[in-house]
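User: structure tokens for this one?
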Amino acid sequence: MEGRDIGTNVFPDAELKIYLDASPAARARRRAEQLRAQGIEADYPQILDFIIKRDAQDTGRKNNPLAKASDAHYLDSTSIPREQIVEAIVALFAAVKP
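Assistant:
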């Protein structure tokens, strides 16, 4: 399951938690590429601004702020290809589920 508060609020007792992160610039670039691949016009600076504001709002909110669960594995995908991230997640899962 994926979401901004899955490991801290929805499933706090999950056996495996992964906090997948990337820089705002990398996420904005990926989103712009995704939209363009769908034939949708994408304004990178506007997307980047939205991501930065959403992150600030989510981490600063009073109730259930965005945070890495203390027992979550941290993966920064900023400069790692998708295939390597998938491999890392599968390896973490395999370590939990023999």
